[in-house]
Amino acid sequence: MIKILALAGSTRSESFNKKILKVAVFGAREAGAEVTIVDLQDYRMPLYDGDFEQKEGLPSNVLKIKELFSQNHGFLFALPEYNGSLSGVFKNTIDWVSRSDKGEAPLHCFNGKVAGLISASPGNFGGMRGLVHARSLLEIINVVVMPEQVCVPRAHEVIDEYGNIRPEITMKSLEKLGANLVDLTLRVRGFQGGGL
Questions:
Q1: Could you give phi then psi for residue 140, rounded to 5 degrees?
Q2: pLDDT tens digits for 9-23?
Q3: What CATH architecture applies to the domain 3-189?
Q4: Angle between helices 88-97 and 60-71 (to 10 degrees)
Q5: Is 40 helix (H, G, I), strand (E, B) or coil?
Q6: Tens of pLDDT along 114-141?
Q7: Which residues contact 117 (CB under 8 A, 6 or more apart)?
């Protein structure tokens, strides 16, 4: 079975991106994937610092989240746009997870895995500019990023307090992206019930 790790690049409890993530996760599960949802609020870690890493090693929360990244075939990322780019918490997470633990090959958690990107924003572009940076970052660390992505503009107007999204076509697009992520991961990984 394909395993997908899903997370939002925000720690805010009422994050629009956490809400749209649930919709895409539904689509991935309907397509047969086992999906693990992670809240970065539960994995607090210091800002990446090479001197800290050399003296202290990888923090315990980094080791925990690295294990989750390594156990999954693909990733579903719902990413807010901060000042036209990525949120600090998402970038910091990727920076820490990219570090090799003892005996690990470089980029062990990312090599050849597949990612789907979605975003919601109060702005008119729906977080699109941040996804450009996310795509570049992930491709540099050997992740296959799906060509399609879904951006939800004016999120404060179209997403209600219960996570319902208008119009319905946007809901369907998010679900379809989740399903297509599973399909692409199957094809890229040459999945035959094997391991990672």
A1: -65, -30
A2: 999 999 999 999 999
A3: 3-Layer(aba) Sandwich (3.40)
A4: 80
A5: helix
A6: 999 999 999 999 999 999 999 999 999 9
A7: 77, 79, 131, 134, 135, 145, 146, 149
Residue 92 Cα distances to 9, 51, 105, 153, 154, angstroms: 10, 15, 20, 25, 27
Question: Using alpha carbons only, what angle is made at residue 153 by residues 92 and 144, rounded to the nearest 5 degrees?
Answer: 45
pTM of the predicted protein model: 0.95
The pLDDT, as a whole number, for residue 191 is 62
Share the mean pLDDT of the chain: 95
Helix axes 88-97, 128-140, angle to 10 degrees: 10
**pLDDT score for 103:** 87
